[in-house]
Amino acid sequence: MEIEFLRDIGQRLFKEISLFKPQFNTTALGRGASGDTTFPIDKLAEDRIIEAFEKAGAKINIISEERGSKLIQENYPSLIIDPIDGSKNAVSGIPFFSTSIAIAEGETLKSLKLGYIINLVNGDEFWAKRDEGAFFNGQRIKTRDNTMPVIIAFEASTPHNAVKQILPVLKIANRVRCFGSTALDLAYLSRGALSIFIVPTPSRIFDFSAGVLIAKESSAIVTDIEGNSIENLKIAFNTKTTLLVSANETLHKKALDLIK
Amino acid sequence: MEIEFLRDIGQRLFKEISLFKPQFNTTALGRGASGDTTFPIDKLAEDRIIEAFEKAGAKINIISEERGSKLIQENYPSLIIDPIDGSKNAVSGIPFFSTSIAIAEGETLKSLKLGYIINLVNGDEFWAKRDEGAFFNGQRIKTRDNTMPVIIAFEASTPHNAVKQILPVLKIANRVRCFGSTALDLAYLSRGALSIFIVPTPSRIFDFSAGVLIAKESSAIVTDIEGNSIENLKIAFNTKTTLLVSANETLHKKALDLIK
């Protein structure tokens, strides 16, 4: 599987969603494997992605937000999908959501090989292949060099406690953002838009996998909020971790010092 | 001046910006009247709006973020423009920014007559005429009836203090958002996407005027964060106020109680 295969899926999804706007159908379809409500847009995106891999006869295990885990064979690579990252935005009518697809070859996050994110509102595409760099719409990208924090973004599934926890870091923020799509936060940080991105409440493997690879390949520093490596976390449906992702080492140290 | 005149300006701006992407030219052009940095996209948008009014021979005083105040004649109506609301997003490459245009007939905010906002990323349009309701892409809109808060959004020019101040309100939030465009926060709240929107650090007249009229016409409750009416604030370049805007009276009371 190569990036062009993922781009083809993403671009077709972007066209279908632009045309038929399934996000405006807010009839809940029940709960997905992750426990979150599944909406028609989530199901449509997941179906399209899995269909494409099945049609291509891909020998791959699947970890996906709605359907959960599908193990075909132990030694196969893993496909890690968030069909719609930012579902809440999508079904609320807020135009900021994406699709996130990652492929890992081994048993831990260190083995992430491909990452692809498409902004389903304007078609912005981000991708990375391990050791080959990160790209935005075909152009090589790098994080900000600037060591003064400009925009600090966060995500929080439990707002009050999470915001309380990151409050010290906001002392050095010029602006704060909370967009509601972890994949897009990581993508835009990778191309220099954000200085620091924090997720103080555990983020799920399908939310961050593609974004974390793109971030690393654009030279971001990625750890959990205590500064520990996340490289040895297992590729598994239930894997969760807090995240601290910074545009450079200096910013990362500043953020860690303030959190402690 | 009618809504169709404002929509014509907005749609032409949306096309020009989609095509030429002036947001990616991040060479600062100096500081505008508001003190913020002016970027090519801010100047382009402001020029287009003011040109259109001049060409139409409009007898109107102008209050605009970059050029400041231009008083033609005391008793003329006022045009209140934020050429690009969410400039920081735009020049950072984050696709969430808008144009906000309002017209007031008298001396205070109570006299706001027309409000128009266009999302410059996807072309979503919101408008309102006093006492005639609010609209999204031509359809009448109303805020959420639900009295349980789902998404609470905020804006903060000084992140640390502002976030500290709104922390108590986040106790009742299911999700939190900070998108970086006051005009769009007000617009999406008006069509039911957000429950509560808070700006604890003073927001400027050009950021909120169009959005406040749209919010009121879609039955949102609008006060400052202490619960005071903002209706008697002067239509003037330097007018600023904190904001608390809720989808309904019950949510507004809950938020006020928590802030106090």
CATH classification class of the largest domain in chain A: Alpha Beta
Helix count of chain A equals 7
Helical residue percent band of chain A? 25-40%
Please give the domain count of chain A.
2
CATH homologous group name of the largest domain in chain A: Fructose-1,6-Bisphosphatase, subunit A, domain 1
- Named at the architecture level, the CATH assignment of the largest domain in chain A is 2-Layer Sandwich
Question: According to CATH, what is the topology of the largest domain in chain A?
Answer: Fructose-1,6-Bisphosphatase, Chain A, domain 1
Q: Tell me the overall shape of chain A.
A: globular
* Residue share in β-strands of chain A: 25-35%
InterPro entries (chains A, B): Inositol_monophosphatase-like (IPR000760)
Protein name (chains A, B): Myo-inositol-1(Or 4)-monophosphatase
GO molecular function (chains A, B): inositol monophosphate 1-phosphatase activity; metal ion binding
Cofactor (chains A, B): Mg(2+)
Question: Care to describe what's here?
Answer:
Chains A, B: Pfam families: Inositol_P. Chains A, B: Its cofactor is Mg(2+). Chains A, B: This is Myo-inositol-1(Or 4)-monophosphatase. Chains A, B: Mg(2+) binds at residues 65, 82, 84-85, 207. The structure is a homodimer of 260-residue chains. The first copy, chain A, is α+β, with helices and mostly antiparallel strands. Chain A folds into two domains: 3-140, 2-Layer Sandwich (Fructose-1,6-Bisphosphatase, Chain A, domain 1), CATH 3.30.540; 151-259, D-Maltodextrin-Binding Protein, domain 2. Chain A contains seven helices and 13 strands. The first copy, chain A, has helices at residues 3-20, 40-55, 87-92, 159-170, 182-190, 205-217, 249-259; strands spanning 61-64, 68-70, 78-85, 98-104, 112-119, 125-129, 134-136, 139-140, 151-154, 175-177, 196-204, 221-223, 240-246. In chain A, helix 4 crosses helix 7 (249-259) and helix 5 (182-190) runs parallel beside helix 6 (205-217). The interface between A and B is medium-sized, with 35 and 35 residues.
